[in-house]
Amino acid sequence: MDDAEEGDPNGTETAPLPFRTAVDALRTARLRPEIEIEPTRPPQRLAPFTYALEAAVVQEDEDLADGRLVLLHDPAGHDAWQGSFRLVTLVRAELEPEMAADPLLPEVCWSWLTGALQSRGLAYGEPSGTVTRASSHYFGGLAARPAASQIEIRASWTPREGVGGVPDTAAHLASWCDLLSQVAGLPPAAPGDTSVVTLPQRRGPQSR
Length: 208
What we know:
Layout: H1 17-27, E1 30-31, E2 35-40, E3 49-59, E4 62-78, E5 83-95, H2 97-100, H3 105-119, E6 124-136, E7 148-159, H4 169-184, E8 197-198
Antiparallel strand pairs: 1-8, 2-3, 3-4, 4-5, 5-7, 6-7
Helix pairs in contact: 3-4
């Protein structure tokens, strides 16, 4: 039986030590209580070794934002990454009409990502991504529904490697959760806030 069949959707037990160390840091990260997060099956063709998490920002049983974070590792290194690790993310959230109409929204959302990394003093390189704004208007039998808008951030960056060739993935996860919280409209966590939890702690569908 492989690791995925035993309950590890990422199957990391036979991976190289630097990757396993990076994954262990993700598994033990301490996060805001509004962040519900759990491992999920990662894409298989992006790198020799992958690990993925999915998360949602939940407040009063309402999902305010959700996303996925994928850790990639190629022990031989990757020219486009300029390193042997890469983080890839997708973040989505519904928008208020006033915010959706802001012409500077894409630039602001991208600055939230880079600002989240910089605010924690994280070294990274080769950032790239897109910010997509979409609106839905309903007609006919659905005309009673109000128009809805959504923002989607797709991005990737190379976390700089530290001791033993391992990046500080726990800090990168925390910065990603900062981005999720900001997109969801939550206030910043207070300095020294200890109301944080360790993953996994995503609730099942029956509790939504």
